[in-house]
Amino acid sequence: MRLNALFLSLLLLTIRSLSAQTVADFKTKELLVFDFKEKQFPAINGIWYSNNNGQFVRLNMVKQGGDIGPGATFKVAFPNDPRKIYNLDLNLHCSATCVCTNPDGSKQEFIAVSHNSKPEGTIQSLLVSEMDGTYHDFDSGEFIVIKKVASGYECHYSNGKTPYVPMVMSAVDSELGFLFHFPGQPQVKYTCKWLNGDYMARFELKNPNGKKQKYMRVYDSKDARLDKTPNKNEIGGFCKPITYLYPTTPTNVQVKLKTTERLSVTYPEYDSLSGWQVQANPDGTLRTTEGEYFYLFWETEAPPEGHPLPDSGFVIVGKESASFLKEKLSGMGFTPKEYNELIVYWHPILKQSPYVQVHFAYEYLQGGRDYSNPSGKSYCLRAGIDVTPKPETLFRLMMYYSAVAIPRPIPIQKLPKLERKGFTLVEWGGTQGRFGWGCKP
Questions:
Q1: Dihedrals φ, ψ of 127, to 5°?
Q2: Which of 56, 279, 312, 401 has the most CB within a 10 Å radius?
Q3: Burial 81-101 (b: 16+ CB within 10 A, else e)
């Protein structure tokens, strides 16, 4: 066995929820399964090896050591050849690699192909299982669904304008990954190569003419209606921006949106010519000819092709999103009413993912000065707002998020502190980043 670069996909940070990790070398088709003790990394239950025949042998653990993080090491040997030692040196800083020095000094690359797996299976079975989901090419609008069924796995394709058609999934290719072809066209093959780092959340498809496309996982396969045209709305527009108005005295206010996306829903009803016309009061209540409201609500339906998830932010446990949002929003100056309404909407969505990467884009204008961050300025180019009379303080927050199976270290985002002066407009909303679920996963 020759080993090198075991891409453990930040196993260190996910040991609370993962008990095993499978990695593969696609040149030799060898497999390794690391079975870790929960919350005791690098303590380990065992390491198994297979040459991709479905049979695994448990390796002898000669030595293990090192603290959590770079420097954790394992020395292993085959039961039938205990004198040959293989050294595994984990580097879990960003690149999340594990370098193995073999007895003869040679090295070899392994890539993570599955988690929560038992010491069983082949490269193909592990990869197909891990890739279960619905994928979208934001440039072409095409969709691919890899779906687990009683008989195994199915692959379906849609051009984004018509319902899905079945494709045939061929055997795994040792260099490229999966092979697909349309029924009746076995000679025209499409090769699929996963992009390492976020557990099959994206892959690259190479067409027969050599053109390459990148597909991103946008929601689970169980949510795909194969008899219908894929719903692009599910992959994220600007979801539930809510706008609060706080004048110092009762004031007639006009609010007009300058979004480049099509509005999918508004409340109260938005007039495309005059916008919203309301009487705003210091306590935040809004009155129109239709009745009384506490905020203005709007939503768009277009996918955020031009908005990759910014690098800075936070990686959180999905189930802990409520406490995270309360801490960050209260710290930024949102009132309990404002941040509770955000939490009630977004926590049920974010908690569905094991981990979530979050970035806050904000437009912050006050007294003629612009304190917005770069992502906030970019957001306003696609979703601007005109308010008459002009607020002295305007603070609009757009939460970008990406549901991820494996967290990664990112720069922590610095957040502002809202100071409310004079007539104040406050707004919050959310949208998916380039990778991840949409508004309704």
A1: -70, -45
A2: 401
A3: eeeeebbbbbbbeeebbbbbb
Angle between helices 336-350 and 321-332 (to 10 degrees): 150
Closest-CA residue to 226 (of 273, 287, 151, 164): 164
Report whether 107 contacts 97 (CB < 8 A).
Answer: no
For tokens 């494709």, the residue is 167
CA 159 vs CA 2, 398, 439: distances in Å: 42, 30, 21
Burial (0-12, 13-18, 19+ Cβ within 10 Å), 226: middle
Q: How buried is 260 (Cβ within 10 angstroms: 0-12 exposed, 13-18 middle, 19+ buried)?
A: exposed
Indicate the helix (H) or strand (E) that contains 128. helix 123-130
In a domain, 136, yes or no: yes
The answer to whether residue 115 is domain-embedded is: yes
Q: Where are the alpha helices (DSSP H) in 300-430?
A: 321-332, 336-350, 374-382
Residues in contact with 315: Cβ distance below 8 Å, sequence separation at least 6, in sequence order: 13, 355, 356, 357, 358, 404, 407, 408, 409, 410
Asked if residue 4 is part of any domain, the answer here is no
In this structure, the answer to whether residues 275 and 371 fall within a common structural domain is yes
- Alpha-carbon distance of 171 to 169, in angstroms, equals 7
**pLDDT at position 433, please?**
59
Predicted local distance difference test score (pLDDT) of residue 245: 97
353 — phi, psi (to 5°)?
-100, 145
What is the spatial distance between Cα 156 and Cα 132, in angstroms, rounded to a whole number?
12
Q: Is residue 6, in this structure, part of any structural domain at all? A: no
The structure tokens 């025949």 sit at 53
Domain that holds residue 221: 131-230
* Cβ(376)–Cβ(382) below 8 Å: no
